[in-house]
Model the fold of this input.
Amino acid sequence: MIRKKVMFLAALGLYALFFVFVWTQALERETNFSVYLEYAKVIFKGWVTTLGISAVSLLLALLVGLILYAMRISGSLLLRYLAEIHKTVVFSTPLLVIAIVAYFYIGNAFRLDSKFWVGTVTLALYTGAYISDIYQAAVESIHMNQWQTAEMFGFTKLQTYRYIIFPQVLTGILPPLAGQLAMTIKSSALLSYMGTDEYFNVTRTVMSISFRYPEGFIIMAIGYWIITMPLISLVRRLEEKLNYRLQA
Amino acid sequence: MEIKIEHLIKKYKEKTVLNDLSLTLKDVQVLSLIGASGSGKSTLLRLLSGLEGADAGDIYVNGIHMTGPDRAAYRKRIGFVFQDHNLFPHLSVRENIYLVLEKVHGRSRIESKPEVDALLEQFGLTEHADKLPHQISGGQAQRASIVRALAIKPSLIMLDEPTSALDPVLTYEVLKAIQKLAEEHIDFIIVTHELGFARTVSDYILFMEEGQIVEQGDVSIFESPQTLLFQQFLDKVLSFESHEKSDKK
Done:
């Protein structure tokens, strides 16, 4: 246990050393965070917006993923193709392009001018495509004989999903889901191109008026860490708790 | 049990697995299906269980028509034991049993607890009841799956090569457990490669080859095979067994 802790700290130190090196070599003047303190209130508001966008789009993305997955396993060929086309478009287009098109054209076409909602829904539709793949892989990883056994014992389709497939899928989706969720939070930075006053955009504005760029980037990174790291560790802990395979 | 099969045909794509098979059985308690791999014996079992449908022909088990409206109700009364125990991996042995009882048969935990505990005790699983399938041995898991099948108070139990995934020691342990079913006069059908076991417990045996029943009868068929195919099958299996014995000496 102690050995583990020592090794972890050593690894952390080694990793940090790289940035200390960069810091000493590349920065010409003393760091000064005072201007960021001045704008702390605005920056914090931006951070809260990012938190909001992330939370809402994550929840929506989980739902979108489920809907896309349901479409793909449905009997309707039309729904299956629709889901497939959406996935292909999402996989092949940079999020930045999608964000700009969504805000300036799609949002405009539907007369939507809430930057928050256009951004959040765009992010959810984008991430949902990836999440539907995670769902599909997890369901497919469940052995045929589980379905067969359930059928043999007379479980209904719904019961089979509810009591046999879903609990096993849950443990399978958590690790890839953690990565995808963190990715979504980070991707929310791209919504700054919509002019949304989220964390990235606000911090960047302060950077450009103060010319304190390195400090701004440090603050940015830390702001995202505060959201992503607890989320990742929460999902890990959930996985340890739920994954029956990890129980010796 | 009572089984009546008339001109049964089952195909997988182009391959005919069961070829115009007919059979009438009455008052059989333990039925064994034997034969080489690919002879169609497991397929026949699945059709008898109602898990799969036939391409042509009729099957009646205890008077119930397998394509008729009573099939769903019949299926719920069948206890099935698979080759690889097929326990639900995320549930303990006990929960595997209760899940079926509660969700499919609508029996409460309190009501069924005494029976479940007694079955677990009988099959030596009491101390393993709260473990997950991957935490117990293959033999224990297979016995647990027998308990799961028994707990629903089945009218008939079907076992599909229940020992073929196990090593000899565990095989013995599971066969002992199955023998208990025979002693308690529970009807069952078993697909097995364990000829010694089939000979001990069965009161009727079907030897299959290429989707046909080649030979059938009580255990005496082992003493006096009527067909060359069955003779050859026995020679192969038994000669290997005697080789093994002489190797050990």
About this structure: The radius of gyration of chain A is 22 Å. Residues 40-73 of chain A form the longest helix (34 residues). Chain A has a mean pLDDT of 88.
